[in-house]
Design a protein that fits this description.
Elements: E1 2-5, H1 9-16, E2 22-25, H2 37-52, E3 56-65, H3 76-82, H4 85-99, E4 104-114, E5 126-127, H5 132-135, H6 138-143, E6 157-168, E7 183-185, E8 188-189, H7 195-201, H8 203-217
Length: 218
């Protein structure tokens, strides 16, 4: 049984599209400050595994705006609460207008998996606690040795990333949540899509699909 650390039933339903047995677990892990999603999700997965004692999934996601060097990124939830979604959209479009560029952005999601065991080498990153695994290039990840030393007290965490590109527009649509109304993909904002349409192209769905392929052979 996989335990998905979330209180969002929508995430669980999305995960069930790719995985047979998933159970939501409410666990308040430490959310470290980082400029990348990987270390945040990996830390959460370690704490969740220690708490649950069974295989766990933790995800972290954010909106990365090209014109702001990826900001708000891992700080998306905080920025949504303090600045607001519409204001982020206004700033991104204003910046794009100043530079003559299209206000492009991408949603990214990193899923962290931990079951207390090590992992065979694959193209997906492994976080060993000291972030060496996470910082490897894609080529190095594929050839990384499973005999690499592990920091005392840490367990390896496997990371899976999904992303979807689009552009920032005036808010449209009544569905979704968060930044969905200002994020347009192929002419439609995520807030204008049905749940099925959104799940089919979502950053989380793509990360889950990659994880599901790995987990089927785990």
């Amino acid at each position: 049984m996989l335990h998905y650390v979330t209180t969002n039933e929508g995430k669980v339903r999305e995960a069930e599209e790719y995985l047979d047995e998933v159970r939501a677990v409410d666990f308040d892990y430490t959310e470290v400050q980082a400029d990348d999603l990987g270390p945040i999700a990996a830390r959460g997965a370690r704490e969740a595994y220690a708490h649950v004692g069974d295989p766990v999934l933790v995800d972290d996601a954010g909106l990365f705006v090209d014109g702001f060097d990826g900001f708000p990124g891992p700080y998306s939830a905080y920025v949504e609460e303090t600045l607001g979604v519409e204001r982020v959209g206004d700033l991104a479009r204003d910046r794009a207008e100043e530079t003559g560029e299209t206000p492009r952005a991408q949603f990214k999601c990193t899923i962290a998996y931990c079951d207390g065991e090590d992992f065979a080498a694959t193209p997906d990153a492994v976080d060993y606690g000291d972030r060496r695994g996470h910082d490897l290039s894609a080529d190095d990840r594929a050839t990384a040795s499973t005999t690499d030393s592990v920091v005392a007290g840490d367990v390896p965490v496997k990371l899976f990333e999904g992303r979807v590109r689009g552009r920032i527009v005036e808010p449209r649509g009544e569905g979704g949540f968060g930044y969905d109304p200002i994020f347009e993909h192929d002419g439609t904002t995520l807030a204008e899509m049905s749940a099925a349409e959104k799940n089919a192209i979502s950053h989380r769905g793509r990360a889950l699909a990659t994880f599901a392929e790995f987990y089927a052979e785990r």
